[in-house]
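Check my protein:
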Amino acid sequence: QVRLLESGGGSVQAGGSLRLSCAASLDTSSSFTMGWFRQAPEKEREGVAAIRTPDDSPYYADSVKGRFTISYDYGKSTLYLQMNSLKPEDTAMYYCAAGEGVGTMLSKNEYTYWGQGTQVTVSS
């Protein structure tokens, strides 16, 4: 019933920017939490940013605060992650996620629905 489809990943040089998109087929009017997570090889999947609908309150991991911006376009039913000042340590597979009744916004265990992922690679 709920489908998430990411796009926008790619390879950039350190200091560059990318914007990830996640087309969502869900009813955000019922108060969903949507987020971006990333997983580097041999590392745990970690929360990057999340936003709660319909109030649009954002949450960010300390490592990306001030560099990344999460937003949701209700008209397009699309979640975005604007990533600026990218660093090599941002390199990972990025996943879009959604859930209901989310307590800890950046905890992967709180989310039910996941996209297929899009790769982001930042070279030094």
Summary: The mean pLDDT is 94. The CA atoms of residues 11 and 121 lie 5 Å apart.
